[in-house]
What does this fold into?
Amino acid sequence: PANYQQVQPFQGVKAVGEKPKKLTGNILAFLSVLLYVSGFQVCEYFYFEDIDKWRSLRDLLINLNIFILVGLTFLPRTVLIKSIMVGFSVFCFGDLVDRIVFDIQVFVNSDYGVFLAAVFASIITYKYNVKRRNLE
It folds into this structure.
């Protein structure tokens, strides 16, 4: 009949538990970057004199970081997770270039440039994805 309105599905209702998953993913992505950046300092703080325990802790932190990154693939993707992961990729690429091309094994002043590049890449990715979502 003509007097009935067509019922539309709810557009703004989110599934129960969706927001905590996104928040958990954002926290895990930030934790992953934090572990990557501060792993050396953590090992130096706990095992400055014992190289065997130092290497064991470093391996544990690397494995924990990989575990977090793999776990992020099962969580819903958000704009923040994407931007953090882009910045993390820039960190990793800068570290590989330092170690392979320039044979630099420690933090040097040029690493501040890598840090700035990672921050800019994260910001650009975040703004691009927010703008793209607003256009949809």
